[in-house]
Amino acid sequence: MIQFHLDSASGVAPYLQIVQQVRHALRLGLLREGDQLPTVREVVSTVTINPNTVHKAYRELEYAGLVTPRPGLGTFVTGSLTGDVPAASYVRLRADLVRWIEDAQRAGLDDESVEALVHGTLREHLRVEP
Amino acid sequence: MTSALTARGLTKRYGRRTALDDCTLDIPTGRVVALVGPNGAGKSTLLGLAAGLLRPTSGEIEVLGDAPGAGPDQLARVGFVAQDAPTYANLTVADHLELGRRLNPRWDAKAAERRIADLGLDTGQKAGRLSGGQRAQLALTLALAKRPELLLLDEPAASLDPLARHEFLQGLMAHVVDHEASVVLSSHLVSDLERVCDHLVVLTGSRVQVATDIDEATGTHYRLTGDARDLDDLPPGAELVHATDNGRHRTVVVRSALPVVADRVQVEQLGLEDLVLTYMARAATPALRTVASPEATR
Amino acid sequence: MSWLAWRLFRAQGYLTLLLLACFGVLVALTGPHLADLYSRSGAAACTGDRCSELAQSFLNGAKAGLTGAVYTVGMLAVLGFPILAGVFWGAPLVSRELEAGTHRVAWTQSVTRTRWLLPRLGVVLGAAAVTAALVSFALTWWASPIDSTQGGRLQPGVYLARGIVPVGYALLAVALGVLLGAVLRRTVPAMATTFAGVAALMLTFSLWLRPHLLPPAHANVPLDLSNIQTFAETDGGHMEVVANFAQKGALVLSNRTLTPQGKLFVGPADPTQCSRDLPGQRCMDWVSSLGLRQDVTYQPASRFWAFQLIETGILVAIAAAAVALCVWWVRRRIS
Q: Which position has the higher pLDDT, A25 or C170?
């Protein structure tokens, strides 16, 4: 079952962090259709968070068509974000990424430079803030 | 029952000193309320009035639809922990649990004992020999095991170390889920409050400055920074909260129902901590220029 | 709530039980010995002239040694207990809670302030009454030989340490202490004012109120110079002659020597009978020939229990008023 964590210093509202973590897990295939999200009670006992925040996050995911609440049973994943991209592609791309990072390190870049290069390139090429 | 706490024109004076001045509040049930403000702003007074320990000088206050301390039924629905978590120095931890059991019809003895065991408190230890943090935990246990619908906590985590504070807040959230309780929690540590609270009341100078859901508060407060000349006129519909000048550079915090968009100045939305700090800074510097745009005064 | 009321009083309760037990043992051990002393002295069955000598010798024996020590301890215990109860059981009851802030715990459980206060009052008032009764009755029983010999149970020093009046003062002291603690909110000032208040009440009753609780009795008898209290003559011939009142154990309110015409006797002294160079007996004989009368208002010793009942009744009534005021104060005025 997915474990949430909150970063107080990130400046992102707590409920959004939950939403993002669910979306992230869906993208990476860590959450699949039919999986159950933790109950509000379970989330509250692992993360110090207001239960209303969890409700709000789950509602937002429901409006996005990604989860469905089943009264008495829990909240279940009913959508997906991987789209038509097969899981194998994700595995391959991830491996390519790891190879590139090792390459950059061999070329002499330190960790900060690697991150800056990645972020800068992402910003130029995508309209999404990583 | 839709209102946890309602106050109208609530005022409390001690002789010539005004502790609370004309406060009007309407806090819905099911909220975890952050009550913030500088020392002496009236937080403890407000909580004391809500708990029935104090009587208003004028104005009214209602808690869960009834006057505070109106009778045993009303008292049973409200849990209160005072600042410094007072306990009976000569009574043991076990005695305190017995006290809770005997004086509260809805007492959950098993939950209380479990919580004490989890906290590692020695039931035979006299409360006077406990550390400040342990006393706070004992006082909180008394309030939680009573199973109230509304919890009033006056700086409950002040004497707890970070881990204990975290565990206390977690226990509090579990209680909120299990009992659909409302909480009013006064604290200086705003960073804790952001995760745990969803409603904000800011008290400065004995008056209520802000009383709304946190999302609404953070969504309607903006910080504009730029050249002083560009900030002489505020965006339409924006209400000035606080302004600071540094030579030609000015920082202005405004509250606006409409999204604020401005060119030539930097616009950011305020987080909870910065929002609270702004109001507290405003209270500390009473002489400030209140510059409002012509549209705003319409 | 009664559990909490007892739990908070527990330590003091056990200590008091211990002290009571010690006192009880002392009284039980020495009581028979004192009674024995009394019967052997012959002072009990005495009639006639030697009685005062026998009485005095018995009293000397009784007030010496172990019995003397027990008498002193007993007197101090019964006289002092009401004040101690008020100061240590009454004054801190509410004030200590207010000082420590524990009232913020007590008054936010599921009981109202009244339901919190009444059992706590009940425990301390009950303990005070029971302790005072036990100690007082023990001493009253134990000291009955001494009292019979001295005859004076109406004298304030003795009266306050006998019978049921100590119970009345104990109840009043505790009620007053709790009230003062609630009003002053600080334990030490409450203790001090309770001490002063109870002491003042005891003094007020003894000096001014008690003698008038019942209409005093009157006696007008021929002056008996064999039992002289004062026999004085000043240079101007002014005389003051007062005799002791013969009735044993009476509380004398006024004792005047009157002329046969009913006026206060002030002389003047007959210089032929009363002067420095003449024997004093001659002056005395002259005075007794004048037909003077002794006019006394007094309370007879037989009224001891009547006074005890009346005074205790008044004290209990005042205590009840203090309790009512205290409950009202805690409910409405502590905020």
A: C170
C10 touches chain B (CB under 8 A): no
Both C189 and C297 in one domain: the answer is no
Higher pLDDT, C9 or B281: C9
Say yes or no: C47 and C125 in one domain: yes
Provide, as residue numbers in chain C, all residues whose Cβ is less than 8 Å from the Cβ of B71. 112
Looking at the structure, do residues C222 and C320 belong to the same domain, yes or no? Answer: no
The predicted pLDDT at position B62 comes to 95
Domain ranges of chain A: 8-77, 87-125
Cα angle value B79/A40/A45 (rounded, 5°): 65
pLDDT by residue (tens digit) across B15-42? 899 999 999 999 999 999 999 988 888 9
Dihedral Cα C124, C126, C132, C134, nearest 10 deg: -130
Give C111's contacts in chain B (Cβ within 8 Å).
72, 75, 103
pLDDT digits (tens, 9 = 90+) for C222-276: 888 888 888 888 877 788 888 888 888 888 899 999 888 888 888 788 878 787 7
Q: Does C223 share its domain with C202?
A: no
Taking the C-alpha atoms of B68, B72, B74 and B75 in order, what is their torsion angle to the nearest 10 degrees?
Answer: 70
Helix or strand run (H / E) with residue B294: none
Cβ neighbours of A11 in B, within 8 Å = 271
- For residue B220, give every residue at least 6 positions away whose Cβ sits within 8 Å of its Cβ, in sequence order, or none: B255, B256, B257
Q: For residue C66, give its domain range.
A: 2-214+303-332
Does A touch B (3+ CB pairs < 8 Å)? yes
Do C191 and C46 share a structural domain? Answer: yes
Domain count, chain C: 2
Res. B290 pLDDT band, cuts 50 70 90: very low
CATH no., domain A8-77: 1.10.10.10
Is the same domain home to C308 and C245?
A: no
pLDDT of residue B289: 47
Do C225 and C174 have their domain in common? Answer: no
- Give this prediction's pTM: 0.84
* Fold designation for B3-205: Rossmann fold (3.40.50)
- What is the distance between the alpha carbons of residues C72 and C70, in angstroms, rounded to a whole number? 5
pLDDT mean over C151-180: 93
Asked whether B218 and B271 are in contact (CB, 8 A), the reply is: yes
